[in-house]
Amino acid sequence: MAATRYRRFLKLCEEWPVEETKRGRDLGAFLRQRVAQAFREGESTQIADPANCDQMYESLVRIHTNFYKNKYPRLKDTSFTGVTVEECKLILATDSGKQMEEMKKGKWKKLREKFSAKNAEEDSKL
């Protein structure tokens, strides 16, 4: 029975997309990592709580198939902010987050980091 569960989780991992824009924060990559940890011995892994394992699998399948999105359709593709899904994805991308952090820094902090980096380079040359 553990072999069947293992194969079901592997199939789910294969189908789950990896979003390159969310490096280090992607649910698909996290899922693959957790499945690898949980099934270290592959098909011969002994599962301590099969009911919990099955429940987790079913929950992940519902997320993957957009069960609740289809069950409760939205009237509009925007939220109360007026931001579309595409704009949200752009804002939540890892690169955008880094750019936002850079924008939050004040002028003095940017200059301090710039000069401290130059000093470190000069010190390493000596």
Automatic annotation (TrEMBL):
Keyword Hydrolase attached: no
Please indicate which superkingdom the organism of origin belongs to.
Answer: Eukaryota
Q: Keywords in alphabetical order, please.
A: Mitochondrion, Mitochondrion nucleoid, Transit peptide
Task: Name where it's found.
Answer: Mitochondrion matrix, Mitochondrion nucleoid
The record's annotation in Pfam families points to:
UQCC2_CBP6
One GO cellular component assignment for this chain's record is: mitochondrial nucleoid
Cleavable signal peptide:
none
Major location, coarse class? mitochondrion
Q: Which regions span the lipid bilayer?
A: none
One biological process term from GO is: regulation of skeletal muscle cell differentiation
PANTHER family from the UniProt entry: UBIQUINOL-CYTOCHROME-C REDUCTASE COMPLEX ASSEMBLY FACTOR 2
Task: State the name under which the record lists this protein.
Answer: Mitochondrial nucleoid factor 1
